[in-house]
Amino acid sequence: MNNFFKRTLTGSIFVAITTSLILINEWTFLAFVLIANLWLSIEFFRISSHDQTKPLSFTSILTGSIAVILVFLGKTYDINSSIYWLILIPASFIFVEELFLNKQNPLRNISVSFLSLIYITIPLITSILLVYGNNFDFQIKKGGTFHPELLIGILILIWIFDSMAYCVGVPLGKHKLFIRVSPKKSWEGTIGGALFVIVAGIFMFKFFPVISQTDWIVISALVIVFGTIGDLIESLFKRSINVKDSGETLPGHGGLLDRLDSFIFTLPWVLIYFILKSLIS
Prior knowledge:
This protein has helices spanning 3-24, 26-49, 57-76, 88-101, 106-131, 149-172, 187-207, 213-240, 256-280; strands at 176-178, 182-186. With 281 residues, the protein is mostly helical.
C-alpha cells in the first residue's frame, strides 16, 4: 500500500478512536489518559533500553497511573487535595526496587524511570486540568465540570500542523530545519504547516467557543513552536540510539509516541499560558 494512503487510513482510525474516547464522557476520557500513559511509557522505555538502561518500568507506570487517577478524582469529586501526596509512596518504591534488583547503571535506571513521569505523565495530567478548567481559573477545584472541547481543539491543530507539514515538506522541502536531529524535516514543511494552523486557529472559535478567538490564535502559535520542539526532542532520543520509530503499532506513523510527541510537549505550555493570563487579568 502506498505510504501516503497507509498514513491517511491509520491516521483517520486513530483520530476517530481518540476523539471518541475524549468526547463521550469523563470516564472514557480517563481511559484515554490511562491508556496513553501506559502505551507511551512502554514505548519510551523501549527506546531507553537500547542505551543500556533498564528502567523500573512497572513501578514507574504504576506511579504515573495512580497520579492520573488521583488528579482525575480530585477534579471530579469532593476529595481533599492532600490525597495527592500519596503519590510519593509508589514513587519512593522506584528507589527501593532499584536498591534490591542489583542492576548495572542504577543512577541511569532511576533517572529514566522518573524522566518518563516528567516527559509523559505530567503532560497527560495537564490534559485533565485543561478539560476541568472552570472558566480557565486553574486553581485546583473540587467538583469541576467536564469540558473536553479545548483538548479536542488542541489535538485538531496539532494534527493539521503535522499533516500539512508532511504534505508541503515532502514535495517542496529543500532547506533542512534541524539536520543533526531530524534530516527529513524542512523549513518549507514547517512554514507550510504553520500557515495552515494559523488559519485553522482563526476559525477554531466558531467550532469551539469555549475560549476566545485570541486564545485560539495564541494556542495555534504554541502548537507551531512547542509542537515542533516536542517532535525534535523525540527525534533526538531516537537518533541518539539509532532507532527509527518508537514502535510499530500505527502503520505509516510508527508508534503512538511518534504520533503524540508534539501533543504531550505542547499541553503544559497551553496551561502556562492560561495561568499567566489569569494572573495578569
